[in-house]
Amino acid sequence: MARAPTGQVLERESKSGKDGRRGKTFALRFRAYGTRQFVTLGTAEEGWTHSKAEEELANVLADVRRGIWRSAEPAPHVVLPAAEPTFHEFASAWLEGRRPELRPRTIEALEWALSGHLLPFFRSHRPSQITVAEVDRYRTAKVRESADLRSRR
Asked: Closest by alpha carbon to 126, among 83, 91, 88, 87?
C-alpha cells in the first residue's frame, strides 16, 4: 500500500522584494506521485498566514490522495516566427552570403539568372509558396516566352 502523502509549510523571510520591502513568503513542500513537489503560495503582504498555508497544504494533500492534484504547468514559451521574406529578399540575402566564396564571373552568372529569369516570375512569392505546381507554371511561362521569341524571328 502506498504511503500517505505528507508535507510541510515553509515560511521564509524574504531579503527584499521588488519594491525593496522585506516580508514572509509561504510555500508548500510535499511528496506527490513519488516525487518531491514545491509550490509557492505567496507573501504575507498578499494575505498569506501560517494557518492559511496549513489549510492549503491539507487541501493539496487531500487532492493528492484522490489522485486529482496536478502541478502547475509553466506558461508556454511562445516564439513568434519571423516574417517570411519574399523570394527577392531571400535570394538577395543568399547571394550576399555566398559572395565572399564565389568568383566574380560566378556572381555575374547568378545575378543574371536571378534578375533575368527567376525574379520577374517569383519576386513577390514567399519561399513556402514556391511549390512544384508553381515551378511548373514558371516552366510553362518560360517555354511560352521562348516560343514567342522564335516566332518573331
From this structure: 87
Q: What torsion, rounded to 10 degrees, do the Cα atoms 58, 60, 64, 69 define?
A: 160
SS3 annotation, 79-99: CCCCCCCCHHHHHHHHHHHHH
Q: Which residues does 43 contact at the CB level (< 8 Å), separation at least 6?
A: 14, 17, 23, 24, 25, 26
Q: 78, 5, 76, 7: which is closest to 41 by C-alpha?
A: 7
- Sign of the Cα torsion 43, 48, 54, 57 reads negative
Residue 140 pLDDT > 80: yes
Cell numbers describing residue 139: 516552366
pLDDT value at position 90? 95
**Model confidence pLDDT, tens digit, residues 84-119:** 999 999 999 999 999 999 999 999 999 999 999 999
pLDDT at position 133: 95
pLDDT value at residue 21: 62
Question: What span, in angstroms and rounded, lies between the C-alpha atoms of 90 and 95?
Answer: 9
Torsion of CA 121, 122, 124, 130, to 10 degrees: 140
Cell digits for 92? 538577395
